[in-house]
Amino acid sequence: MRLEAPKDGYLRAGLSDQKTVRLHPRASLDSRVGILKHELAHLYLARVKPEASSYLHEVFALWTSHDDIRVSLENADFFRRKEALDYLKKRSQPDFANGSRDDRALARVLTHLRSQKKESEQVQKLLEESFRGTLSLDEIEGRLSTAFQIEKPTAKLDFAFWDGAGRVLESEGRLDEAFPTGSVMKPFLIATEPEFMAKRPSRSHPIWFCPHQRVSPKIWTWQEALSLSCNGFFLDSKKPWEKLQNYRGTLIGLGVKEPGSLVADVIGVVPNQKMSLREVERAYRWIGLKAPFVFEALQDVPVNGTLAKLPESDWFAKRKIALKSGSMKDEKGEPLHSWIVAFDAEVPAEPRFTAVIHAEGQATPALLTALRERIERNWWDSNRKAKVQILGLIPSAVIDGRCESGPLLERKDADWRISNETNIQASTSDSFRCLSGAMMVSFEPKAGQPRLQRPYYGTLTSRAAIAQEPEITVKGKRPLKANQQKARRGSSWVLETSERDYLFEVVASEFAGGRREALKALALVVRANLEVGWKKSGEMCDTTICQVFGQSDRMNRFQQKKLWALLHEIQGLNLQNRDNEWLPFSAGGTEPWTEERGASFVEQSLALTGAPQSIEKKGHSYVAQVGSRKIELSCDDVRLQLSLPSCPETIRKDLANDGEVTFFFGGRGRGHNRGLSVLKANDLAAQGYGFEDILLQTNKTWKLQK
Description:
This protein is α+β, with helices and mostly antiparallel strands. 35% of the residues lie in helices and 22% in strands. The longest helix is centred in the first third of the chain and has 20 residues, at 29-48.
């Protein structure tokens, strides 16, 4: 093999004879391997099939070496496959295998064939059979000509909708099957390769014929090129044939199996890049974290870009929904693969939603209508976030976190990066998250017990080590027990999730089997409390003194679907009381109960200075007589520290035979029995009451705001 300067009219990238393969010295390093394979294929075919025509020679060499992609990209003679086919049909005696325009037309046809799995397999099988002597050269060439006719695929639609926390709320079709992406990944190219942000002039060439754009020389910005999806802007960069190291490396790090390597792959000129709906959505969330300015440009797509002037365009524009479309077409301009990605661009790092739709055999305008219908039925008005302290009673054992799909991300020095760790507690980073999907957190509920696992959606942040905080006492007396300390001190882990996801988890965890109207009432109370914040800290929690969270697995799939639907119905409503304070709720109910506790146990649990002689109910609180002192106790102190089902209504004491004083506590229902009783709400719902009447039955000062 030689790198040889052109002479005697030799202008091709590669040339071969029986002994030598010559490569043009200006061929890039990345393309030389393909060119070499191309020439070696010619030499091989000349030996095993010396009677092969120039047509078969070029088909075999281009296909087996994959050099058809380079040939069709380096020359803009034929932008579409149809142009190449029409050109070849008009040629009475095409001249192949000499670097002519005929070669480039054939390369364009083969490149498009390669994108169709069925046709690609047919060509591959045909070439393999030819060398086993099963087909004559005439049969081979005839069948190759037939293989050029690509059938239009049957229309299929794939869709998925993720809420702000990264949970899939609706899906149909194939979420994990990879398809050619077209130009839907151009935003990721801008976000990872700074070279493509440079301005560049347009020129009169088919690759610059962008949608809705008059052909006139001008200086283009990357924002304009992205909104109009103009291929010329990207192909005229300084590195169209260099491998996109940052782009490809980042996608591989995010778990994408078939990312592109060249600009032509990314912008959809060739079908080398294939991604699933889940992979595309994950890539867009990465853009939101690392390059949110890219999303601002995509808000212009339904206004002035590729999806402007359509019946649905105004609906997206008014809601400031950013869009990006992409497609792969056949030689007649008919759609083979079409994509649209939609997302809330107001808070790109934590979008209200992300939606991805893909179709075979449908154009993007038709997809836009289907996309709107699906977004509307999943729309959530608020983009408010919820912070909740989680795992508050979990021992300080190692907590492990991994992503359900895709990589774990960690934030350090205000910058998100792909993590190599799974032990999130031992890491020096302050926050962790998955791009989308659940973070599967495993922990030991108590030392030596089997590990449990819970899915959390959102960003998990570690606060300052709580071991350095002072011990908490009750009424200034002796310290509480370890679990009591943990419950009152709060957790060292805070999960930031979406408002919708928080409401779903609390309602599902607190009252999984509730009736529809009772669940609506509970959801509105939970939403009001999210606005107020637990004890004015602004953060909710999931310990014994807070709202239960993160146990939605108590619901089956049917119940979960029902809960998502009813949350959608009340999203425009807000519940407030007169003083805008925390709205209490509990299981409630009327079932009677009786519990007994020894005086020494009561003394230790309530951190008293001695054994109580008596405990009496006084309004909503209690008074314990200890010696000459009277100590006031709250309902929650008595209920929680003595592990009683609810705040006791009756208290009596008895003296056992051994002289030990025993207290007998009696009451009804479960919880503190204040505010909304979810069991009573469920009974009212069974009687036909709506959620508004249920709330008024609980407290007449609670008002709904719409």
